[in-house]
Amino acid sequence: MKAMALNLIVRKIPFSIEKPMGLNATEVAEVVKAADEAKAFGAIPFVWRYSDTVKKLKESILKTQILHMNYRFIAGSPSRYLESSKWMLSSATAGGGCMTNLGVHFIDMALYLTDSKSAKVLSSVYQYDKEYDIEIYASSLLKMDNGASLALETGYAYPMDQENKRENHWCIVTEDGYYTLTNNNLEAREFGKDAVNISLSTDSDVYYPIFAATTLEDFVNGRRPRASLHEMLVVREILDNMNKSAR
User: How far apart are the C-alpha atoms of 122 and 102, rounded to whole Å?
Assistant: First the structure.
């Protein structure tokens, strides 16, 4: 991914590139430096930044300071990559397993919702697969630079079927409320008020077309992408520290 991004930058081709853009923060930093020097346009599909769900949370629902966030995103078995993307099952080619693949979205979202620029990794525990060289279940505890805490769980552990592909569960604690989001429903409980249920999508797949259209508009209009290579570097640095803590 690093070589592909550097090639696009040299050829002056604007691009979007999937996370994590490099096997570690050193590789990502090399791409960011080259892009800055060339004034290149590069976007990352951190699609929750482009979602109505997070927009409503940030702009109208979460009215007081966030104290704690808990995100749990559990997808299917790693064996689903055997036919289409076998490289995903090796740290040498993918950079990691479920936390590298899934967790980066929620690290970025936590930074975005709290207006934080960094986060300190307090602890990480990873469970590894006997057959594949990746973590298949991972738990981490972080402290955002605004003081909020983040508990993050990701995994390749959900027995999938045609209707249910994954578990996606959020809990956000603020100074005056408690918010849980799962199965396209947000339950908002605020002190002194009746509980309210709000329909919000928990399916990230639907936001990729929105990301693509918005990114094209940003490029055409000379705007910085909502999720740029710089946001990827911050997340990759945090992810490296989580992986180091787990080891």
Answer: 19
Residue with tokens 């081709």: 13
Among 44, 98, 34, CA closest to 71: 98
180 CB neighbour count, 10 Å cutoff: 15
Write down the pTM of the prediction.
0.95
Q: Which residues contact 215 (CB under 8 A, 6 or more apart)?
A: 16, 43, 225
| Angstrom distance (rounded) from CA 218 to CA 82 | 36
Rounded distance between C-alpha atoms, residue 2 and residue 27, angstroms: 6
d(Cα 19, Cα 216) in Å, to the nearest integer?
18
Q: What is the pLDDT of residues 123-154, one digit of tens each?
A: 999 999 889 999 999 999 999 999 999 999 99
Tell the burial category of 229 from Cβ atoms under 10 Å away from its Cβ (0-12, 13-18, 19+).
Answer: buried
Residue 31 tokens, joined = 């791409």
Residue 66 identity (one-letter amino acid): I
